[in-house]
Amino acid sequence: MENIKKAMRHIDISDEGSNHRHAIPFSEFLEVVLKNPTGTIRNVFQVFHDLFTEHVGEGVDEYPNDPESIQYVSYDCSKLLVEGADHPFFADRLFANRLVNIVEALRTGAQQNKIYIFDGPHGCGKSTFLNNLLKRFEEYANTDSGTRYETVWRLDRRQLAEKGGNETASILESLFRMQQNPNKKQFDTIRTMALPESDGQFIEVPCPCHDNPLLLIPKALRRQFLDDLFDNNEFKYTLFTDKAYEWIFQDVPCTICGSLYDALLTRLKSPAKVFEMVHAVPYTFNRRLGKGISVFSPGDRPVKQIILTNEYLQRTINQLFSDSNQVRYIHSRYAKTNNGIYALMDIKSHNIERLIELHNIISEGVHKVEDIEENVSSLFMALMNPEDKKNIKEFQSFSDRIVYINIPYVLDLNTEVEIYRNIFGVRIDDSFLPRVLHNFARVIISSRISLRSEAMLEWIPKPEKYSRYCDKNLQLLKMEIYTGYIPEWLSEEDRKALTAKRRRRIIGESENEGRQGISGRDSIKIFNSFYTAYAKSGEMIDMAMLCKFFHSQKDLKSSIPDGFLDSLLLLYDFSILQEVKESLYYYNEDQIHREILNYMFAVNFEPGTSETCKFTGDKVHITDELLEGFERRMLGSKADKEKLLNLRKDTQKEYTSRTLTQEILVSGTPPTETRLFESLKDRYVFNLKEKVLDPFLENENFRRAIKDYAEEDFKTYDKKIRDDVTFLMDNLMKKYRYTEAGAKAIGIYVIDNDLARKFTNP
Q: Is residue 10 scored above 50 in pLDDT?
């Protein structure tokens, strides 16, 4: 018995078990408004935006100082759509940016008279996405940070029985009379008015439309009321100027609350007395009960009862006011999700009828219930397969009320890999050499991206210039841009040519991609076949295994572009060559910094002069040989004279227009942290690394030492080779997540396939 009592006490005191959300008088509600105005004065669109603010955040821009940035940032949607979900939904970068932009528009007032339809092919995860989003919204709306208040009336039988009641002066009455200098301290007096605890004395009448209690303040007086209520602060300025808050001045209460207010004012002769019967209660969301969130599947039959009422409440109200026509407690089913979310899962069968019925509601914002007009202000959402668009084609007037949000198959290779990790476990990485798992994702995504890209060809008219690193259709390059990454193997000219306008065009093409190719469901099946076939071998899965697998899949041949696997292998070879070079390369950073700073300074003077560099203190004898020597280390020994001069001119222009005038003199940026310095250093180091492997390729002992690394025989090699190989292995493991066995394998692979000479610049 003691254990039972203990368990019950725990339930009784736990937050989840109690979940009591008490009603508070209107005067106390105003105190809550003053303490937390942004949390209490908000509609469903603002709450939806706040959900994203709390669960997604601002996102990360990998190139914050890029003047050609298009704010295509990395958003982490895991808290919103993955954590705690039975079936996680992984939003790729493209969809996440699309979604966040829509949510930003919602908050700023673009939400009126719209239905948001998530449009995508079978197997893209639409239903999973919407279910997870609604679940998180429901959870958030029922927490303190997501709480909004709705109106509930507590009608005092005893006071209504008195004819007229007592007229008392209060701050509320003063506000309604629009006095010039209200004394806000009088709210303390109102707060002390406690409602007597007497069974049967009060009749609770909930607002079926979940109206914010502030909407009961007569519309003509509301602006003055809020002006008197708030001090002159930042929120007050936002309230009166931000489009997101227009609703608080424009909306009217539901017909039931409006009728109750009028009837009570007639009886009590005092707005203050009326507001003593107004209470506020947290708006509780419950999808299963259809409260605040209603979701309809195509097979859900329409209900026969169109008009909803409460006969007990109606009889009681009639008795209180002795007039059955004064307050009619009737409403539609749309009232249950007013200021909430109304969602349709797939536009087919009965959901076609529901969508058509929403036409007038979305267009006018009202719904007729017998003779009564019911306001409807909800967030309307729907899912749609491409073939179902024909179901609403004949309703052309509806087209401008629909906002389509494309939700295609995943086009971001990092997200595709996250899906594999989620389903098969994060330890799958241990079975792959670095890059190979992501290359599997690249093959899958190649089937979803268009073969011809006008935006890419406008940027790079001759794709064959990158034939050593990229496919002829530039899909591999486009995939990198979709992930937010600009590859280092691009030429300097093409990097500069990637303007914001071009980048937007490339990203914009994603709207028409991901609607065909290997679906999300099929990619999981294919990966399962691949993983189970090669993970058991005991060897780490490499590119040879990946290529062998896809070449053997005859049913996938038509989905994967011709030559794509060959180009993918070339890019892989080039990438791991850079990793080995980076891991072998050791440079004197101080010396490199000194050379770059001297060059940045020297290009501003005519050859034949001598100047003291203000950054290094070195006396620099400026000659063509000095400048050209540095430029050839940057561009390669075979670069022609024109390229050298262009580098010199570009450096001088950037230095005078931005580096010196804006970054160093105005912002106080150290010279080594300026954009020009970082750009020159990246290119300088890249070209120095190009030759780093040459001394080792001629030494057969170097290959054998890699093979014998960590073995007893490794001790037999001379100290220089042992140091070089150890340096290489340590860096491969630390920087690129190779295991010891993987680092040895990749080192031997680079040497045996002569990758250094294969990718030597012509």
A: yes
Segments forming the whole domain that contains residue 666 = 589-689
Cα distances (angstroms) measured from residue 52 to each of 45, 47, 641: 11, 9, 54
> Which pLDDT score, from 0 to 100, does residue 11 have?
64
3-state secondary structure labels for all residues of 450-504: CCCCHHHHHHCCCHHHHCCCCCCCCHHHHHHHHCCCCCCCCCHHHHHHCCHHHHH
Query: Nearest-CA neighbor of 458 among 412, 413, 508?
Result: 508
Contacts (Cβ under 8 Å, ≥6 apart) of 297 = 345, 346, 351
Q: Please determine, for residue 126, whether its predicted confidence score (pLDDT) is greater than 70.
A: yes
Residue 444 located in a structural domain: yes
Judge whether 260 and 328 are in contact, CB under 8 Å. no
What six digits make up the tokens of 84? 């705690």
pLDDT tens, residue by residue, 75-118: 999 999 999 999 999 999 999 999 999 999 888 765 567 899 99
State whether 143 and 222 are in the same domain: yes
pLDDT at 181 over 60: no
Residues ≥6 apart with Cβ < 8 Å to 210: 150, 151, 283, 292, 335, 338, 339, 340
Report the alpha-carbon distance of residue 750 to residue 7 in Å, rounded.
65
**Is residue 549 a contact partner of residue 560, using CB atoms and an 8 Å limit?**
no
Does residue 272 sit in the same domain as residue 315?
A: yes
In terms of Cα–Cα distance, which of 348, 451, 376 is closest to 111?
A: 376
Contact 651, 599 (CB under 8 A): yes
Residue 118, phi then psi, degrees to nearest 5: -90, 115
Question: What phi, psi does 432 have (nearest 5°)?
Answer: -115, 145
